Amino acid sequence: MGTKGHTEIRDRVEHLRREIERHNHLYYTEAKPEISDREYDRLMAELVELERKHPELDRPDSPSRKVGGAPIDGFVTVRHSEPMLSIDNTYSADDLREFDKRVRKWLDGAPVRYFVEAKIDGVAMALRYEDGVLTQGLTRGDGEKGDDVTSNLRTVRDLPLRLLGRNHPPVLEVRGEVYMARADFAYLNKTREAEGLEPFANPRNSTAGSLKLLDPTLCAKRKLRLFVYGIQKADELGMKTHQEALGKAKEWGLPVNPLGEVCETIDAVLKLVDRWQTRRNELPYEIDGLVIKVDDLAQRKALGNTSKSPRWVSAYKFEAEQGTTRLREITIQVGKTGALTPVANLDPVRLAGTTVTRASLHNEDYIREKDIRVGDLVVVEKAGEIIPYIVRSEPSARTGEEKEYHFPRHCPVCGEAVKRDADGAVTRCTGKDCIGVARRRLRAFAARNAMDIEGLGSETVDQLVDAGLLRSLADIYRLQKEQLLPLERMGEQSVNNLLAGIEASKERGMARLLTGLGIRHVGETVADTLAGRFADIAELRGATEEAIASIPGIGPERAGSIRAWFDDDANGGLVDELAGLGLNMQAPPRPAREEQVLAGKTLVVTGTLEKFDRAEVERLIRELGGKAAGSVSKKTDYLVAGANAGSKLDKARELGVKVLDEEGFAKLIGR
Ligand code: IVH
After folding, report:
1. Distance 120 CA to ligand 1 centre (A)
2. Which of 90, 119, 207, 211 best tests ligand 1's pocket when mutated (most atoms within 8 Å of CB)?
């Protein structure tokens, strides 16, 4: 290629980078996107392709790093330029007044102003920019040395790889918190469960886990975000106050949490504490308290540090959403794969605005390790989206009446022996014909994310199992009107609806059927992948383990599980039966044309939804021929907005895009 051609390519690459950076900023910082996701993706794809063909043009601050970069072998440990200290915690108004008194005493009674910020519940990060380009990101580690996670940090959505404006300090170090928004966390866990993976306990854990991924492309999919909460050596850069430093950070395009406020007195701080205690649940990300900082940088210097923490800052921790109550009974739930899960039945306790009567005890080992006994006072925690669980017992409150719990050796439903998995803490029922497992399998099969059988919810499944009409999945398709009519709550109309729902489900196709079959490690996503590779279930069934394992996103463990499932005669027989009963086993499903109600339409989903979850809505949109986009633009046809919808809703109103609530959406798609 001639020199001229190369110059043109370089210019194009530079142009693309500038444009993408500008759109990143418009999207994440200003919440005012100018182009559609599709156009954005097109720009990014062009850049990635040009960089692939011309590796000499690659740069560490190319916005293409947002979607990943080359996988690495491990993380290097690097010393922090200044130790990352921790903050002294306060838990009450009295503690905070004490903190204020100490500060004033050390400052000889000089007037003090505080800057109060949200304490983001994520993972601390030290970031380094050289000549305005992001060059390093270190985790806190032990405070002295941290892990270099730069390539993963580059994928953080709202973080500029190059600072905006000019005249940046040659070296700029900022510190902040990487976090995951609630919605992204919920979505991640949903997908993990669909893939048969263990869900993360909370957004902080999922953030930490994501930063440790060795493949930045995977990390990019986790949609991490960041708030900068401090500039190192801000005084040496000529800034006088923390507020001024954050203002500068914002000018440079760094994401700064908008909730910060200056307080002139500790009483004003306490008012804020009260206000945020209740408002925290409305935020799209989790905060676990407020951070109260002396605003004046010269005063900070005068105050200095103790060996562990600076004297100029205090973290006020919100009350954890924990409560103490009595554990009355431990019952066992048998899942669709036969897993036995112990559940604590509790005296009702109010937590995070809901009444909790049941909480997870995870597994046999957990009960033993935590020495949890029936009759104990126990501490229950409910955080955000998470199922309540027992944190610990209070052995000091025991009367001697409490009973140690013995995990059953036999399935409480069918009485067959149980067996622990060789590779974990999970205990399973070995019964080939366990009615508990059957119930769960039937429910999972009929569920919305699988065969989506209208009229066949959990209660109806139980009713039909109890009536002896359902046992295997195939039984669903043998149900007769005359059998159903005599049952309670089964009027003519309900029966017709149920049978119509069952009939309609026959056309769901390979992916949904695979999801519904309850093969271990095969959830929606994996099922979709398989349906993208095999023409129908028969072809998958005939495939070798190696062939299945070689599909991207499947891997040996899942392939083994899939192969083993089909090799089990009972399962092979079930598939034959279902085929004989007229189920469509082809990929992709044959959607009736009249179902493609969203053909050519672009929808955006935002806010907290109640009846649907976001993954489900997006899947429905795709299935019905539409496109689920991430940001609102002129080309958006509908915004589906749940509770606490924010900037996207404003944008939609501004552009005159039609806004639907959940009901409106359900109506639109005719459900
Ligand atoms: S200031 C000297 N500001 O909380 C420490 N920290 O418990 C200066 N955190 O490790 C930290 N939000 O990772 C500060 N607005 C905020 C914060 C914040 C979250 C984290 C931080 C730190 C931990 C201390």
Report:
1. 8
2. 119
d(CA 441, CA 450): 11
Q: How far is the CA of 79 from the centre of ligand 1 (A)?
A: 19
C-alpha 87 – ligand 1 centre gap (Å) = 7
CATH number listed for the domain at residues 593-669: 3.40.50.10190
Residue 172 falls in which region: left (phi positive, over 0), alpha (psi -120 to 50) or beta? beta
Would you state the structure tokens that stand for residue 246, as one six-digit string?
Answer: 């954050």
Phi, psi dihedrals of residue 253, rounded to the nearest 5°: 90, 5
How far apart are the C-alpha atoms of 18 and 523, rounded to whole Å? 40
Helices (H), 506-637: 510-517, 524-533, 537-542, 545-549, 555-567, 569-580, 614-623
- By most ligand atoms within 8 Å of CB, the mutation choice from 211, 229, 261, 288 for ligand 1 is 229
Mean pLDDT (whole number) for 472-486: 96
Q: How many CB atoms lie within 10 A of CB 636?
A: 22
The confidence score (pLDDT) of residue 112 equals: 96
Does the pTM exceed 0.70? no
Pocket test for ligand 1, best of 207, 287, 291, 305 (most atoms within 8 A of CB): 291
- Residue 133 Cα distances to 28, 60, 61, 161, angstroms: 18, 8, 6, 6
CA of 607 to the centre of ligand 1 (A): 27
Residue with token string 């993963």? 152
CATH code of the domain made up of 3-58:
1.10.287.610
Query: Is 313 exposed, middle or buried (CB count within 10 Å of its CB: 0-12, 13-18, 19+)?
Result: buried
Catalytic annotation, pick one of 53, 66, 119, 382: 119
Report whether 647 contacts 612 (CB < 8 A). no
CATH fold group of domain 435-505? DNA polymerase; domain 1 (1.10.150)
Band of pLDDT at residue 590, cut at 50, 70 and 90: very low
* CATH number assigned to the domain with residue range 510-580, chosen from the 4 options 3.90.650.10, 3.40.50.1980, 2.60.40.10, 1.10.150.20: 1.10.150.20
The answer to whether residues 114 and 294 touch, using CB atoms and an 8 Å cutoff, is yes
Within 6 A (CB) of ligand 1 lie 85-87, 117, 119-120, 124, 140, 177, 229-230, 291, 310, 313, 315
Nearest CA to ligand 1 atom 12: 119
308 is annotated as an active-site residue: no
Banded model confidence at residue 383, pLDDT cuts 50, 70, 90: low
* Cis-peptide into 111, omega within 30 deg: no
